[in-house]
Amino acid sequence: MAQARGASTDTRKWVIGIAAVVVVAALVIGGVIWTISDKNKTEGQTITPGGGTSLATDVVQKRDGVVVTVGKPGAKASIDVYADFLCPICGQFEKTYKTQIEQAVNDGKLQVRYHMVPLLNDRSDPPGYSLDSANAALAAADAGKFVQFHDALFANQPEEGKRGYDKAQLVKLGGDVGITDPKFSQTVNAGTYDQQINAAFQQIENDPKLVQDFGNGQSGFGTPTVASNGTIVSWQDPSWLAKVTG
Question: pTM of the full predicted structure?
């Protein structure tokens, strides 16, 4: 009898052990599936257009190389904005100052020169979103829809370290903001401006006027960077735009 009770106890321990292993395995598998799903949550999504853009009809959007200028001719002030569509701080900058910048542009006080830089090109999964989105934004500028495209990408910004948007999604956004020229999709898919963007980025990184001190002995170029008349503007100051436009 004693031997039988021992065997029964061992069996119960064995069953409980197997059950525990199954539960742990299920949790691990569930966690992996959730992680993959979260990483790829942009897959199949439509990038929503209409990020609240309301430019005046006489505001000009013009591409010059890999820089896009937005504003009315004769604006007395101008700024250069260096940003990466994947950069979360750039996204915060846009959220905080978009309305003020747009108002200054509509009032004819400000021109904005946008520089799309692929600083975080290896920080999407798979890599490449920063460059793809920059190239697509220049293609949108060719079609006169840069601001609409730019604002939609920031309003629907993917997370750093996760999947960005693929070229098909970028092409779809172009159509949704009103681009009908087939050259747009051709430019996006071919990466037409990739080489120029990378070459400009190398110059930007090596421009001493764009070097910032990040503290702890670290300095260099970072995004977002705002400059006016060749001097870096401290955009963390809430009144920076008023000071620029005077």
Answer: 0.84
